[in-house]
Amino acid sequence: MGTVLVSLFQVNSDDVESPENRYERVLSEVVELAQGTHHSLADKKPDLILLPELWLSGAFNIDKAISLATTFPGKISEDFCEIASIHNVWIHAGSFIEKQDNAFFNTSLIINSQGEIAATYKKIHLFGFQEGESKYLTRGDDLVCIATPLGMTAITTCYDLRFPEIFRKLLDKGATSILMSSGWPEERIEHWNSLSKARAIENQTFFIGCNGVGISNKTKLGGNSLVIDPWGNLLNKQTNTENIFNIEIDLQQVNIVREKLPVLADRIIK
């Protein structure tokens, strides 16, 4: 385990911009990040790029999201796979509505540095209380924890954050880092900040969450994308506007914290 550079692209998914224009704009910025020429970067290109949940449509515009449904593989995955392959970078492209047969899923897309789909994660906890996602989408069943430049990496999405049991299950799969793609609203952004820190501390992992910004179907997204280390320290400055955060992570911190405070060895209920 060494150091890795992670780029979080806090995309503005405001309703005033068409999905077509946003797609081309975001793809162009991702290319600049991947090749190391983006103005936000210094002298090192990222090992992994992370985007928000449903950034193409806006996280709270479920009708639009379904109208933009894709398949994996498909055009979106092919575009991101090409970028990853050319520039030798991992990309968590955020999540999209995926259509399989007659069902729709909120699916995260993770691509390795060879330009292959390393994993997809179908969101397990669907938000909406009988409306929105929970009314129109099908939940996933499978936990996803894969080897990435961040070590064993758990893949999660937004509303999953409120369910600590899923993170314990991912910890048992060997997770040392957690990636979360999100569309969290501004009115509950303190919940996002507090629960993200809790998930990092209680599991002694890195927690890396990329949230969207902009107004999606009259709901203002809260930004505040974050990287939290296993001790609970916030490693980046947070904003509520479109931004790119480049954070270098020392993966040794997981072992250091777990050895210094071996609380996980004292778990009784599993």
What is the helix/strand order? Answer: EHEHHEEEHEEHEHEEEEEH
Helicity range: 25-40%
Q: Write down the Rg.
A: 17 Å
Percentage of β-strand residues: 25-35%
Write out the strand line-up for the largest beta sheet, numbering strands in chain order.
Answer: 5-4-3-2-1-13
Q: Which regions have little confidence, pLDDT < 50, spanning 5+ residues?
A: none
Shape: globular
Oligomer status: single chain
- The first-to-last residue Cα distance is 27 Å
- Please give the largest β-sheet: 6 strands, mixed
What value does the average pLDDT take? 97
What's the total count of β strands? 13
Which structural class fits the helix and strand makeup?
alpha/beta
Number of helices: 7
Topology:
Blueprint: E1 3-10, H1 19-35, E2 48-50, H2 62-67, H3 75-87, E3 90-100, E4 103-111, E5 117-122, H4 132-136, E6 145-148, E7 151-157, H5 164-172, E8 177-182, H6 189-203, E9 206-211, E10 213-216, E11 219-222, E12 226-228, E13 243-250, H7 252-260
Parallel strand pairs: 1-2, 2-3, 7-8, 8-9
Antiparallel strand pairs: 1-13, 3-4, 4-5, 6-7, 9-12, 10-11
Explain how this protein is built.
The protein is built from 7 helices and 13 strands. The chain has helices at 19-35, 62-67, 75-87, 132-136, 164-172, 189-203, 252-260, and strands spanning 3-10, 48-50, 90-100, 103-111, 117-122, 145-148, 151-157, 177-182, 206-211, 213-216, 219-222, 226-228, 243-250. The longest helix is centred in the N-terminal third of the chain and has 17 residues, at 19-35. The model has no long low-confidence stretch (mean pLDDT 97).
